[in-house]
Amino acid sequence: MEDVIKVEGLVKKFEKLTAVDGISFQIKQGEVFGLLGPNGAGKTTMLHMLATLLKPTEGTAVVNGFDIKKQPNKVRESIGMVFQDPSSDDILTGYENLKLHALMYGVSSELREKKINEVLELVDLTDRKNDLVKKYSGGMRRRLEIARGLLHGPKILFLDEPTLGLDPQTREHMWNYIEKLVKEQNVTIIITTHYMEEADRLCDRIAIIDYGKVVVMDSPEKLKKALGGDIIKISMKNPDVEKVKKLDFVKNSKVVDGSLVLTVTDAGKNIQHILKTVGDVDSVEMRSPTLNDVFLHYTGREFREQTPEGNIMNRIMNLEARR
What we know:
Oligomer: single chain
CATH topology of the largest domain: Rossmann fold
Strand order of the largest sheet: 6-7-8-3-9-10
Helix content: 25-40%
CATH superfamily of the largest domain: P-loop containing nucleotide triphosphate hydrolases
Distance between the termini: 43 Å
Number of helices: 12
Largest sheet: 6 strands, mixed
Shape: elongated
Strand content: 25-35%
Low-confidence stretches: 305-313
CATH architecture of the largest domain: 3-Layer(aba) Sandwich
Number of strands: 14
Mean pLDDT: 89
CATH class of the largest domain: Alpha Beta
């Protein structure tokens, strides 16, 4: 498959703040590619550059064969975008929102009604198309915005935190719609998220982003497998990694939040040996690796932690507002 997106050394700076710091990757046709990272890592800034909503400070990217610097209008014509914040007009109906979008993108009158009906059916909103959007639930509104992003037939769909703020049940439904979309529409999707489970379930590959850099990139399964074993978390007083480093079946060891976190081969076989080595323990947890463990392995901290700078996008908005 051909690469439909090629990113080369993208950098975005806002005064002294570097939000994206030299990122490069390629995405193939039909792939679901995730940008995974904590709040403020630079994911949304990255997506906005690819959608030509922000100009890069350095580097460039090619989207659908069009250079984001030289051919921004062509890029915009060939992508769909679902923003992190709600962007549909809540004083219009679902149908009116879609018709307005179709007119803006020049969808011909012959195709307009057909396309609107198709995308409404895809996201199960046909029965609610004549209701005002302000009467929609959060999940319905997100589904409408996905339908709007697909209306003009884009080859690539950008989803910026598509399930942010949704309850777990609605989030599950949204995942089902996205999987249905990939299967039936054969579009390439780039999704930003800070939900581990979302990236694990939906993405063919993910790039874990931290402090504006890609720290590692591969399929979720390969990233977890590369850790080399199961995870054992031991709660105890005064955890000491030096006691277990000499054990050849312990591949990695850290103290996190006062607990000893180990990556161990044949954990079930070796757990008793480990417990004898470390001494008195309060509790023990043993499980398969998660993407949070991958993040911890490469960054040295839990995924839930914020960057010291706080939420980078909030700071960016403040900088832009002062200009």
